[in-house]
Specification:
This is TIGR03085 family protein. GO terms for molecular function: metal ion binding. Pfam families: MDMPI_N. InterPro entries: CHP03085, DinB/YfiT-like, Maleyloyr_isom, MDMPI_metal-binding. By secondary structure, the protein is of the alpha+beta class. It folds into two domains: 110 residues, no CATH class; 83 residues, Nonspecific Lipid-transfer Protein, Chain A (2-Layer Sandwich), CATH 3.30.1050. It has ten helices and four strands. Helix 1 runs antiparallel to helix 5, helix 1 packs parallel to helix 6 and helix 2 packs across helix 4. The chain is globular and about 55 Å long.
Length: 218
């Protein structure tokens, strides 16, 4: 997880803070503020989620965003994220496995906010870890699918994310599968295969109207 955190820090450092991300209504600055709030101010994070404001209009998140409007403020927010999660935050008690996929997805939120980019080349051990940690997200993301869903890595493993008599196979590298399962449908480089009518039902449900959740492990 800390390797991915360090890589994400460098991407935040190079990015335009006002650039769009894959999270509707959020700039790079908003996304960085979200990660800091999640790791250091969980009660404020919960209050924003409960209030259900329009993306970009969150009360407590907005305060962090405003504090990061200047270059110095943005740098300070980034250093807070780089330093790691607060040891007093219950979110961190679940261990690294609970957060690695979130960092990977948010990393792509930043990278792909302005359109397609070349995929990152990740170490094989990290790719295997993403696949291993993806199951809970897949079950959550596809729980309302009108058809069954099987995730598959081309030439590699597969798993059932949702059981149903008719099913599609969503195939791609683990990072792409994570993006698709979390609602980043247009940004995910995957193939959906199956019977024509089953694929059509799935695509009607999973199309670009399925918004990316602001917190992928919610």
């Amino acid at each position: 997880m800390e390797t991915e955190r360090a890589a994400l820090v460098e991407t935040f450092r190079r990015a335009d803070p006002d650039a769009p991300t894959l999270c509707e209504g959020w700039t790079v600055r908003h996304l960085l503020a979200h990660l800091v709030q999640r790791e250091h101010h969980p009660l404020r994070q919960a209050a924003d989620v409960i209030a259900r404001p329009r993306p970009g209009r969150e009360r407590f998140l907005g305060r962090l965003v405003e504090q990061a409007r200047t270059p110095a403020g943005y740098a300070a927010l980034l250093e807070t994220f780089a330093a790691g999660m607060s040891p007093r935050n219950p979110v961190g008690w679940a261990g690294d496995r609970a957060h690695h996929v979130e960092y990977v997805i948010h990393h792509e939120d930043v990278r792909r906010g302005r359109g397609p980019v070349d995929p990152r080349v990740l170490p094989p051990d990290q790719v295997r870890a993403i696949w291993a940690e993806l199951a809970p997200l897949a079950r959550l993301g596809y729980r309302r699918s009108p058809v069954g869903v099987v995730q598959a890595v081309p030439g590699g493993p597969r798993r059932v994310a949702r059981r149903a008599p008719d099913a599609v196979v969503v195939a791609g590298d683990p990072v792409e599968l994570a993006l698709h399962a979390s609602g980043r449908v247009e940004a995910a480089d995957v193939d959906v295969v199956g019977r024509a009518e089953t694929v059509e039902r799935f695509l009607r449900w999973s199309g670009p109207t399925v918004a990316a959740r602001e917190d992928v492990d919610a």
